[in-house]
Specification:
It holds the Pfam family Peptidase_M19. The chain is of the alpha/beta class. The chain contains 16 helices and nine strands. The model is unreliable at 1-9 (pLDDT under 50).
Length: 408
């Protein structure tokens, strides 16, 4: 179920986009590494080719808005929420992952003039030159692989090129960072199963994504992986101390090994919104009262908005804005170096702040970086060039025999 941000206030970013900023963006490859939009593909009546609005249905990505915002594509996510870790739960997760994979591939197949599956670093520029949008595939939470880890080879053959091990709860592969204060670990970071998954991802040239996993997982993943890693949608812990964010020391270690951190725009990770456990529990009740459905009628959607606004007022919830987002982005660029930073806003997965509600606002980031003194080469790297470089670096370290066997 999608919810809605408050009306934009102060701190919502540049009011005008200069011709220079637009030209820089047009020449760059613009990739976002965490697009949760596939969760909408099965929603009745929702089509990627229709223009939707954040105010209307809460969605943040579609083809018309990608054109308007200048997004050339990115990593489209196979997300599976963590459930029971027994045989039945693992089978259910296996099937859910395969269904979502099919939905992404079917979207591409249904729109060959607009989208194209991307699997290599060179695909991004080639697909942009052809006037289409690139669809790289990632998996958020390796839960669908718990039943049979060897399925990673099948996913690779179908286009998977990025893998994160955990989400907001621990699983059989790794410990989670939780949702605010890091929970006690179960494995001390990675389990043996998780370490084996890292080795297999390296063999295939699949990018390893540390976002949502614990600091111990970060340290171990960075040590064990032969290839540089990514944080596909994370923020700066030294700006806001949230367990989902990463501290400066680790950001520097990531950069030293050639990795990239993509900056998240989920408000609760950017500032202290004042959201308490009681507030979250009441929000959950609102969702449950509508059956946790995505296919809400217009009237039901208005009811949800009204009830959420009441809860926000009751608990004095603060809203993050564009300036809060840029505070994280600029801090991370300073710490990591521009060559190791990108964008992973978590669109359609909770991301978006006042002034940066959907992908049409992407030019604001370009203008803000230009205003901060960054040049075209640096901005181009942040918009997508650094991600392309990472894809190339990871795939260059793959085992050619393993790749060939997976593709046969």
């Amino acid at each position: 179920m999608l919810v809605f941000a408050a009306t934009a206030q102060a701190g919502t970013g540049p009011e005008k986009i200069s011709e220079r900023a637009r030209a820089i963006q047009a020449r760059a490859i613009n990739l976002d590494t965490h697009l949760d939009t596939p969760a909408l593909f099965s929603q009745p009546g929702w089509k990627i080719t229709d223009r939707h609005s954040f105010q209307g249905d809460g969605s943040q990505i579609d083809y018309p808005r990608m054109l308007e915002g200048g997004l050339d594509g990115g990593f489209w996510v196979i997300f599976t929420g963590q459930g029971e870790r027994d045989a039945a739960g693992n089978l259910k997760a296996r099937d859910a992952g395969l269904v979502r994979l099919s939905e992404i591939r079917e979207m591409v197949a249904a729109n060959p003039d607009k989208f194209e599956l991307a699997t290599t670093a060179d695909d991004a520029a080639r697909i942009k030159a052809a006037g289409k949008k690139s669809v790289y595939i990632s998996m958020e939470n390796a839960y669908p692989l718990e039943h049979d880890p060897s399925l990673l080879g099948f996913y690779y053959k179908q286009g998977l090129r990025m893998l994160s091990l955990a989400h907001i709860s621990h699983n059989d592969f790794a410990d989670s960072a939780g949702m605010g204060v890091a929970p006690a670990g179960e494995h001390g970071g990675l389990s043996d199963k998780g370490k084996a998954m890292i080795a297999e991802a390296n063999r295939l040239g699949i990018i390893l994504d540390q976002s949502h996993a614990s600091n111990a997982v970060f340290d171990q993943m960075l040590e064990l992986s032969r290839a540089p890693i990514i944080l596909s949608h994370s923020g700066a812990y030294d700006v806001f101390a949230h367990s989902r964010n990463i501290d400066d020391k680790r950001i520097r270690a990531l950069a030293k090994k050639g990795g990239v951190i993509q900056v998240n725009s989920l408000g609760g990770y950017l500032i202290d919104t004042g959201a308490t456990p009681e507030y979250r529990a009441e929000r959950r009740k609102v969702y449950e009262s509508f059956g946790d459905r995505h296919d809400l009628s217009d009237a039901e959607r208005e009811q949800v908005k009204a009830r959420m606004a009441e809860l926000d007022a009751k608990y004095h919830i603060r809203k993050a804005d564009f300036d809060d987002y840029m505070r994280h982005l600029l801090h991370i660029i300073k710490v990591a170096g521009w060559e190791h930073v990108g964008l992973g806003a978590d669109w359609d997965g909770g991301g978006g702040v006042d002034g940066y509600e959907d992908i049409t606002a992407l030019p604001k980031v370009v203008q803000a970086l230009l205003d901060a003194g960054y040049d075209e080469r640096q901005i181009g790297g942040i918009l997508g060039g650094n991600t392309v470089r990472l894809i190339r670096d990871v795939q260059a370290l793959a085992d050619p025999a393993a790749v060939k066997a997976a593709l046969e």
